[in-house]
Amino acid sequence: MKTNVRSHQFRTGVHDVGYTENGLDGYCEIPHTRPEICILSGKTQKALHIALHEAMHAEGIPDKFLDEEWDSSKALAKFLWRLGWRKKK
Questions:
Q1: DSSP strand E in 1-89: where?
Q2: Which of 24, 41, 51, 79 is deepest in the core (most CB within 10 A)?
Q3: Is residue 12 within 8 Å of 58, Cβ to Cβ?
Q4: Taking the alpha carbons of 7, 25, 29, 57 in that order, is the dihedral positive or negative?
Q5: Residue 29: C-alpha distances to residues 10, 11, 15, 46 (Å)
Q6: pTM above 0.85, yes or no
Q7: How does strand 36-39 pair with strand 13-19?
């Protein structure tokens, strides 16, 4: 399922953007001819976290910053949520 944002230029290249439909929270394909980044739909803090996490993968940020013990994307999502970030509609 596609979002209203169809693609985005990351440091690792242009990625098609969509929502996950296979039970996964999200994923990012690297490398690939036309890679895809898929995120959770919805307006929750978890959806924000997954979008940040997959975008960080697409930016080529090392996995050590995205591991289970200390996930920088989760910390950023919590911070942005506390600042009042909410998805429109």
A1: 2-10, 13-19, 27-28, 36-39
A2: 51
A3: yes
A4: positive
A5: 12, 13, 8, 20
A6: no
A7: parallel
